[in-house]
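In line with agreed milestones, the collection of sequences with tokenised folds has grown. A representative record is reproduced below.
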Amino acid sequence: MNIIQWNCRGLKNKFIWLNIPPFSEADIWIFQETFLSIHDNINLPNKTIFRKDREDRSGGDLLIAAPSNISAQQIPIQIQQTREFEILAIKIYVRNVSFYIVNIYAPRGFNIIIIKSFLESLMAPMIIFGDFNLHHPMWGLDHISRYSNEFVEWITDSNLVLLNTTVPTYRSSAGAAALIDLTICSSSMSGYCNSYVLDCSFESDHSPIITELSLLNSNKRIF
């Protein structure tokens, strides 16, 4: 199973890209900043769509699209979402495996304390995909931003694994590059996950990340 995550910076003008590789070859799409409103109806063939749209202002928004031939359900989130972060979570059931997918967007840095209890309640395994806007040497950046030390401590204490290398995922209009889109998984899944950044941004300022999930090739129960 292949999963693609991408801060698309607006989805409505980028549907053409979804019909060609790597998007057409990915099983699951994880998008941040779709800029879709609650009034935008979209249909993606052979996909079940889960969305988190802002109701009071433009911008932001999250989308997860899963294959329509597998079982997936959205997880209720009893957290007041603000301008500081957005979160969308589903649970996937496929073959002998079930796991959570969590999609997060935090435009000004991400305070893990806000949703720590929710993530702990899911009970691993999970894969977290997000544009966190955090800077830390753990993923190759040369300074530490607000909230990032707490975020790194949470990864370590929660027995999670950061799948990124140090390849940047974001490039500003001035040409500055940074790794701010992260992929994190439960340690029980890490041996079955391989993530890499694509070298094309597809008209966004973020490059997509592909995560290859090989555990579904096994006939044994992994966890």
Notes: The chain is about 10% helix and 35% strand. The helical segments are 116-122, 148-157, 187-190. The longest strand covers residues 86-94.
